[in-house]
Amino acid sequence: MQFKQTRLDNGLTMIAEVNESAKSMAAGFFARTGSRDESPEVAGVSHFLEHMMFKGTERRTAFDVNRGFDELGATYNAFTSEENTVYFGAVLPEFQTRLVDLLGDMLRPALRDEDFDMEKNVIVDEIARYQDQPQYRLYEKLMAEHFRGHPLGNSVLGSAESIMALKRDDMRAYFDRRYSPGNVTAVAVGKVDWNAFVEKTTGMCSHWKPFDVSRETAECSGAGTRGTIVDEKVAREHVGIMSPAPSGQDDARFAAQLLATVLGDTTGSRLFYALIEPAIADEANTTYDMLDGTGGFLTFISADGGRAAEAVEIAHAEFRKLMDDGPTETELAAAKNKIASAATLKGELPMGRLTAVGFDWVYRREYVSLAEQIDTIFAVTVDEVVAMARACDLTATTVLGLGPVEKL
Prior knowledge:
CATH topology of the largest domain: Cytochrome Bc1 Complex, Chain A, domain 1
Helix content: 40-55%
Number of strands: 11
C-alpha cells in the first residue's frame, strides 16, 4: 500500500491509498456537512441536496448522470449523515478518469427549478417510508432527546413540512455556505493512477471558489432522561439506550469499539447471553458511534411489551458490570478477532476501504493503514477499556421506548 496526498490552492485535498495488486478502484468526494450544520428553517436540506446532485449539471442532465455511471459499469451511490455527505463509485481502473469527471461535475449541480420541485415529492415519500420503520423512528427521536439543544439532535431527513417549505434559493444558499473546496476531500482507493487522479481532479475542481466554513463541535454528555412513545400499532416494544462515548478524534475510540463488541455484538456478547439466549428479547445490540467532538454508545432492544422494562434493567446491570470489572481477557481477545476479521474482509475490496480511508482523513487528518488499525486494536488492554467505560459513564443513559408500553 502507498499513501498519496496533495492539496489544491483553493483548499481541496486529494488523498489515495494505492494498491497495485487490486483489480478495481473506488473514488469518492467527502463533503464535511450534514444535518448538524443545518438551521431549523432548512431541516433536511443536506440530504435533499444529495438527491439533487444526481439531477444534473450545466454539462449533464439527470439522465446523463445516471447513464454515465451505467456506461462505466460502476457501483455507485451517495449517503448523508448527521456530519458528512459522501458521493462515491467503484469501477475498473481503466474508467478512473471518467468516474472522477462524473463525480466532480456532480458536485457543482444545476439545481433546476423543475428538478427541485419534482424531487420534493420523492423526499417526502422517503420520509413517510422511514416513518413506517419503528427502529428508524426510535433512532431519530432518541438522537433528538439525547442531544437535546445540540446540533446532533437534528433530523437527517427533516420533516415533510420542512421539505415542502424549502425553496430552491434556500438550498443554493446552503450549498454556497457548506460546499467550499476546503470542506471537501477527494479520495481514491485501489488500483489508482495517482498522477491521473490528481490531474483530473485538478481540472474539475481547481476553479471552485474557496470560502470559510465552520462547525460547532461542542461535547455532549446527553440528556439522561427516560421516556416512551406509545404506539399501539407497533406490536413489540423497541427500546433505544444511549450513553456518552469518545469522539472521533479521541484515542480512546479503539477501546470504545472493543467495548461495544464485548457488550452488544449480535452474537456471543454479554447482551446476547443476557437477553437473546434466555428469550427475554429478540434483538439486543450495541454500537459505537464516533462523532465530531463527541460520541455515543447506542443500544437497541426489541422485546415483548411485558418484558421490555425487565430487558432494560438487565441491560443496565450489564453496563454496571463492565464499568466495575471490565471485560475478561477471553472476551477482549474475541472482540479483537471479530473487529480485525471484519475490517480485513471489508478491506479486501477498494470500495470497502474507501470510507475508512476517507473518514480517517476527514476526522483526524491522518492516514491509517489496515495493518496499523489492526495492530492498534490488538494493543488495547482490559484496563484501557475499563478506564474508558468509567470516564464516559456507561450508566449515564438516555432511554426511549417505542411501542405499546406506557412506561419503562
